[in-house]
Automatic annotation (TrEMBL):
Descriptive protein name: Methyltransferase domain-containing protein
Lineage of the organism: Archaea, Methanobacteriati, Methanobacteriota, Stenosarchaea group, Halobacteria
InterPro entries with a match to the protein in the record: SAM-dependent_MTases_sf
Organism, as annotated: Natronorubrum sediminis
């Protein structure tokens, strides 16, 4: 994966921080705290470990957790192995030395799985000691076995085949296990200032997600809600995890400009891969007009005046 993708994953952490539906997250963490004994979590598509660090920093996990974070992309796991310990140390955790789990390596000799323990010691009697064993692993979500109390899939279900991923998630869960799937894209990408070509650009972007990309879809969030309703799963909570990036006082907060820049690049690549003849008449756009739309958007980004809003769905469910 490119450096810019890793930069994007790191930069989107604060966008997700604001976006995550707190009621859905609270339902998830409350249900988790009712599980017996040390809690086993599996995160699919863990990226650079942003959700893992967040849940620990926000102190919403039970006191004893074993957390298995998996990503198919080894560069994400390498970056997560660097970043997560640093973040946890900044949050006051003592982080043990990492050790390889087994001897298997992937490309460039990167260990397939490494593990470390993060502990937090209370300073008063009314606080609880925390111990989290974290394993970061290069693996395909579809080739795993586990018996987890919960599976987390953040910003993943819109880029994979939904039905087979839900089946894989079910197979990873212990009876009564939870699935927390926040930031699942659902059919709306908007920019400010508005532009007369936006609707056509968005339609082409969605067409790429639905018809050209090998998996995923532009209405994955709604499809997820439908799919959960069709299964014997209980929906515990659903809400919106919308991304809103906007310049504040003439500049982007944190590193959020990189998020918008990456979205524009992704859209440009997507649109370039859609043959115009594939599109309904009303969405077709001469290449020159499309090029100028991107030029305008990049100029607005440079001038720190481009805003970006995307609609996502957050869901927490329980299997029987
Ligand atoms: C949009 S990113 C989201 C990363 C992270 N969950 C976050 O929200 O920051 C999707 C991640 O899923 C990973 N991924 C895609 N397909 C996968 C698969 N079959 N197994 C494991 N990871 C996968 C990608 O490598 C990428 O890191």
């Amino acid at each position: 994966m490119t450096t810019s993708f890793l930069t994007y994953l790191e930069a989107k952490r604060t966008v997700d921080d604001s976006a995550l539906d707190r009621r859905v997250l609270e339902q998830f963490t409350n249900a988790l705290s009712n599980r017996d004994g040390p809690v086993r979590l599996v995160e699919l598509g863990v990226g650079v470990g942003a959700m893992l660090s967040r849940l620990i920093e926000w102190d919403v996990l039970p006191p004893r957790v074993s957390y298995r974070g998996v990503d198919i992309d080894s560069s994400c796991i390498v970056r997560a192995r660097e970043r997560v310990p640093k973040r946890l140390e900044s949050a006051g955790y003592t982080v043990g030395a990492p050790r390889s789990v087994g001897n298997e390596t992937v490309e460039d000799g990167v260990p397939k799985a490494t593990s470390f323990v993060a502990t937090w010691a209370p300073s008063s009697d009314d606080e609880t000691a925390t111990e989290i064993e974290i394993t970061l692993e290069v693996a395909d979500a579809f080739a795993l076995e586990d018996d987890a109390d919960a599976v987390i899939a953040a910003a993943l279900l819109d880029i994979v085949d939904l039905e087979s991923t839900l089946a894989a998630i079910e197979s990873l869960l212990a009876p009564g296990g939870l699935c927390y799937a926040p930031i699942t894209y659902d059919g709306s990408t908007a920019f400010t200032p508005r532009d007369s070509l936006d609707a056509s650009i968005e339609a082409q972007y969605h067409h790429h997600m639905d018809e050209v990309r090998p998996a995923g879809g532009s209405r994955a969030g709604s499809a997820l809600l439908e799919s959960v309703a069709d299964r014997p799963w209980s929906l515990l909570a659903a809400g919106s995890g919308d991304w809103v990036v906007s310049p504040v006082d003439g500049g982007y907060p944190h590193r959020e400009r990189a998020v918008v820049s990456h979205v524009l690049e992704t859209m440009a690549d997507a649109l370039a891969a859609v043959p115009s003849s594939d599109l309904p008449e009303e969405s077709r756009l001469p290449a020159e007009k499309r090029r100028r739309w991107f030029e305008r958007r990049h100029a607005e980004l440079e001038a720190e005046r481009l805003g970006y809003v995307a609609h996502n769905v957050d869901v927490v469910t329980r299997v029987p």
